[in-house]
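Hi R.,

Here are the chain sequences for the assembly we discussed:
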Amino acid sequence: MADPEIKSYAPHHESQSAAVTESRPAKAVLMIVSFAFLGIFLLLPLIVVFNEAFAKGLSAYTEALTNPDTRSAIHLTLLVAAISVPLNVVFGISAAWAIAKFEFKGKAFLTTLIDLPFSVSPVISGLVYVLLFGAQGLLGAWLKAHGIVILFAVPGIVLATIFVTFPFVARELIPLMQEQGNGDEEAALSLGANGWQAFWYVTLPNVKWGLLYGVLLCNARAMGEFGAVSVVSGHIRGLTNTMPLHVEILYNEYNAAAAFAVASLLAGLALVTLVLKTLLEMRYGAEIAATRGH
Amino acid sequence: MTTAPAKARWRFRQPSVIPGFGLTLGFSLAYLTLIILIPLSGLIWRSAALGWADFWAIATDRRTINALEISFGTAFIAAAVNVVFGTIVAWVLVRYNFPGRRIVDAMVDLPFALPTAVAGIALTTLYAPNGWLGSLLAPLGIKVAYTPLGIVIALIFIGLPFVVRTVQPIMEEIDKEVEEVAATLGANRFQTIARVLLPGLAPAIVTGFALAFARGVGEYGSVIFIAGNLPYKSEIAPLLIVIRLEEYNYAAATAIAAIMLALSFVMLLVINLVQTWSRKRYG
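And here is the predicted structure of the full complex:
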């Protein structure tokens, strides 16, 4: 640092870097454009949510959240996430094991199929279950005869949620496990471990942060899904209303303060998700797959 | 070591000492088939069962065509806006150091994490004639909420992280020496960016555009609050599907969904070709 020789190079280095970066005014303009854009499109909507939620005071806010319909919506959202996220975790681990640990024909095609739900409109994700299980659906008559209710009930909401959150865990784990290779597992097996032990004591610890990252994103989407769930839920107040659907109902009833009160909980969930995600990226960046965003 | 035989026996999978292939692949395929493939093929089967005349009548219905035009048109504009601003944001995040950079970077993912319905009511409140931004724009004669412009705003919100997160990692990998060489050879900064850096980023930018566009076409939750949902004017295709379903018109809902899927598929194919081309050209 205090080395005079390096110091004497400093001005030279500065003049060199001036050629590979923008002039100060250009820099300032680009930064102002970025901050203005992000401020208007991302920050303002977030501020509006909390501002509107507390617009009628704290007591109105707590009243909106303790309302029985709101509480049952919160309960349903937690239930749906508690069923669909673990199922997609099991699928994600299983698919990643098959795809990352083995070479087989049709692997690329299978990987593409796993990503398919991301390119389908959420409304269509709900529609496909209506066509299958609805009164006019392929299985509708059979289900009715056997007294099984899927549509406009919790099973339908869970199915639609699983559909839209299907790829999250798998696409996080596949590249990570591919990167890590098979060496550790082969060593464990040669030392006498069986397959389950190799998975439990070797693979799982290796991918735990990546898995958590995938679960985090999967959960955020599961709790926040609107379009797919809206199509299959039937909007029965107190029964099949998840939090996002309840937000819509309150908003359409011109009860903006209550709608934003429930929305503020979901926005809080989003902020917690972002903080945890950022912490994971900062601390365990190398242990999380290189793929970011989706 | 023996050399591999010229014509190896066809194998479904390469041999491996690792166990569990049958179990994990079997379970994955069964789950994929039950949750995704059977329901999606149900959609295709139902639309095929419609018959060509019925399908054509629904597809050429004015309201269907307008809804598709609005969905694809607004998604295209929003993705184009995001390409410009998303690339600038990515550049600022990668190249410039400023206090709070980490927080700004994390903020970019907000649209991934914020439920779409929440984004929808927040944007509507913001751009309504009495909202913070709507009241500023009203004197200028610009109406955003309850117009197609509102749809574009919602889709810009939804699509931004797709562009930033696709372009950002490629920008981080740019070798600074390339810029130094360009500068030494007499290029000014603008020429370096336009002729040297942007072509290298083109495949990533095209991918980001495609992802934002695809997401925008199917987006529902954030749009329906701000759109106004006037048939023929500001009614998006996913909403028309929902409306047809609520009318118990399964045939029309199915047909519109099938058209949307087909169009998205063709679009992704075209964009894939453009990507391959630009990778070959500029790779």
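Residues 62-95 of chain B form the longest helix (34 residues). The two ends of chain B are 38 Å apart (CA to CA).

Let me know if anything looks off.

Best,
T.
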